[in-house]
């Protein structure tokens, strides 16, 4: 309240004089705000509970300005009100306590802590969106009727490179990591994102094509993904393979990449097509419904299949319906029956060193 005065300094009638400041306090209107607030008053002023303030003190996040040596009663300075507001806001935003402690300490940056939290939330939301989209695709896939075909498979020379692929949220690349049958490429690289995996797979395939071209070797058809590799950790090993008219020379390799080669023996295989759209998620961490259809068809026909031979072929255009005049995109999945295995006569080459 402003004080009205007459000339000479005497208070005007009806006016009021603020009380004198004592004990090191600060005058605010007619109220005296002390330089220190007890823990109860500080809790009321900040919206933090007394229990939370004690916890923040123990963790070194919000340490009282003064602690009575006898009673251990905590007192906070009025200058700590702003710091308490920052702590409360960061914790409400989900910033971990350890990061809050660093952010509010001398030289820390609350803005940087908030930015890091925002990025973590964005990544987690993207992962959740992919998981939801995958679940929707799997549920929709269970309603599709897959036409499973049994066909002869001729002997086929091939060569490929192996790329480690980690599922979202996975750890770092383990030695000898593998992929389970029914998984698909494009799930993140060494704990990275789906986009990271797409780039890594494309680069691996580019290196394979470039190395073959440099040696005058021309693939005899489109690539496929060899998905039948043992599961390990949170990741997978996916082999990107190209068919050849003849085996590559012994010891041939793609510089700097794990190279595999061999000849698929003649036999039989079960195949089916799975329609894909631009809306299909890249994160296929669940069992693919088309793969489940292959396994079910094998059981119904009394066939023995080798899950280590599961392949996903290059996407291709297929007619939507006979006479419709329209087409869509589909990927073919295949698996060998009666023990035919694509790794027969395989040579594994790491950085030019042969290990048969």
From TrEMBL:
Gene3D superfamilies: 1.10.1660.10. Residues 1-21 have a biased composition (Low complexity). GO terms for molecular function: DNA binding; DNA-binding transcription factor activity. Keywords: DNA-binding. It holds the Pfam family MerR_1. Residues 1-22 are annotated as: Disordered. InterPro entries: DNA-bd_dom_put_sf, MerR-type_HTH_dom, MerR_fam. Residues 39-106 form the HTH merR-type domain. PANTHER family: MERR FAMILY REGULATORY PROTEIN, REDOX-CYCLING DRUG-SENSING TRANSCRIPTIONAL ACTIVATOR SOXR. This is HTH merR-type domain-containing protein.
